[in-house]
Prior knowledge:
Layout: H1 17-34, H2 42-49, H3 53-59, H4 63-82, H5 91-108, H6 110-118, H7 126-146, H8 154-176, H9 183-202, H10 206-218, H11 224-238
Helix pairs in contact: 1-2, 1-4, 1-6, 2-3, 4-7, 5-9, 7-8, 8-9, 9-10
Amino acid sequence: MTAATPAPPPAYRRLSVEQRRSQLLEAALTLFAHRAPEEVTPEDVAAAAGVSRPLVYRYFPGGKQQLYEAAVRSSADQLERCFIEPPTGPPTERVQRVLDRYLAFVDEHGTGFSALLRGGGVCETSRTTAIVDEVRRTAAEEILRHLGAVRPGPRLRMLVRTWIAVVESASLTWLDEGKLPDAVELRDWLVDHLVALLATTATRDAETAEAVASMAAAEKTDGAVATLARRLAPLVESMRPG
């Protein structure tokens, strides 16, 4: 019996500089999504991309650190795009769509997302920290835009930044808890949280009260705001003194 002829190795593809860099970065992103940055080496990236180790250093001479910073920048760009939503329809429905995209990113990039937000690893630098802070600022500006706040004051801005922190913390906890509850339930809870924060702050801040009134006028009678109000009514009534 004639021995089978081994399959030839895959042909080397000649790519443009930008194509090759994108290929290596995509391989790195895939690895960082499932392993802590400290555990990923340039050799791992080379193997995942099907290229030689020297080629990785040719495009990323800074090695793992440069690859990680490029991966953080790429992930940050994707996260920022999650918050971009056309200013049409009820505000809570826009926020729901934003959160659907955000949680889908978290679901797909679990380990990498955790490393990105928790920080503290050997790959973290002032540059990566600044990139993450930029995502938070962009997210807050987009949410404020959906609330109709053109020049928000300190209380409304603090409220939204606080809510962004809650979204991050809840997402990390969601990963730790095996992605329970499901993403839709988590999304709806986060929308309720934003509405509740707005409602309570509106009792103390005229600007927030104006934003809430404008938001409520654009909501549907069966939307998130009305549904939460109906659920809270019996609880509020039970807390009345006497």
